[in-house]
Write a structure and sequence with these properties.
This protein is mainly alpha-helical. The protein folds into three domains: 3-87, no CATH class; 91-176; 195-381, hpI Integrase, Chain A (Orthogonal Bundle), CATH 1.10.443. 51% of the residues lie in helices and 11% in strands. The protein contains 16 helices and ten strands. Strands 1-2-3 form a three-stranded antiparallel sheet. The radius of gyration is 28 Å and the shape is elongated.
Length: 383
Amino acid sequence: MNWQDDFRKDVRRICTGWNIKEKNNKLVLRVRTLNKEQSVTLPFGFNEYQKADAYIRIRNIYNLTLEGHDLKTAAFIAENKNNKLLNNLDWDNAVNKFQESLTNVAPITWQNKYKPALDHALYYLTQTRQVNNAADLTDIVLKKWLGKTEQHAISRRALWRFLKYCVNRLNFSNVWLPPTEIPSAGKKKPKKIGYPISDIQFISLINSLNNQQWIFAIQLCCVYGLRPEELRYLHTRNDGSELWSNYTKSKGGTKGDTTQPRRLYPLLVKDVDGTAIDWNLMQRITARESLPSLGDKGNAGKSIRRYLRNKPIWLSIKEQAAMEGQALVPYSFRHRYSKQLHRTHLRPKQIADAMGHDLKTHLQHYARFMADNMDKEFTLINA
């Protein structure tokens, strides 16, 4: 089936009796009812390049006929409405402002995950000017990545985040709010991958907080790779020279088989120039510095989530994680610990011991970070 047949099939799906034809290299829309046939020439060439734009215009015309307009009047309103909606909006400036607002998005992330989708959107918003709402823009932009599941999802998230910014921050009309995402029926929602927060993101986060007890708790989770619940079980040994966790949990295998208390080893956070930051965490535990209330036993993670969930920097990092198909969670501090250790020369068994679980459990949850180390090792080999 060629593009003309595909196009005609798409138009017939809009409404029975609707079709298209070519006349003098122009696109003609034909509408046949029981009593008569109407036609109107649309401002598009009859070619594959303009097919997507023309389809959106035809759909808009159909919506106007439902309001009682005849075909030619609907076509006239659609063209003028489209021009009025688009000509008054500065989309290029909107993209620039949007990029400036993404203070925690690295330039390479913008280049790879935002710019392709937004450049494609700008073409339709400023050059062809054939879309006048978020749903139509989404349809036409994402066609570029059909069949490319990961890039399609990344592009959709980037486009929708931009459109939400335009409506919520730049006061664009609500017609530019992206459509509600509806999960596919019958498919089990996949478990999201936990996002490993970066050192620079972590520094930005704690610098934005003002509750010293929570800052202390989050620093401990990040530097020692703690499970949130382990914050309740910290103490020092050997005259304050070692930090330990007495927390134990079921291994999920043999009944009664649990993890063991373990010594904790710090992996210091590094600032932008690579300098390690020592917050004297072990000494502060020895001095019995206060930690925040963590709620009932087993709910420490929920308590951390509740504290952070509305913090602007946390939300910004959360959106960046979502762009990569991952989830920012209280365990993201522990994920950072694992990812960074896999970039060292420690063996997986040593890393598993440092994190308080067996090698099998470690490989089930953190084997993905071993690929990062492979990349580093091959870079060294080929240097």
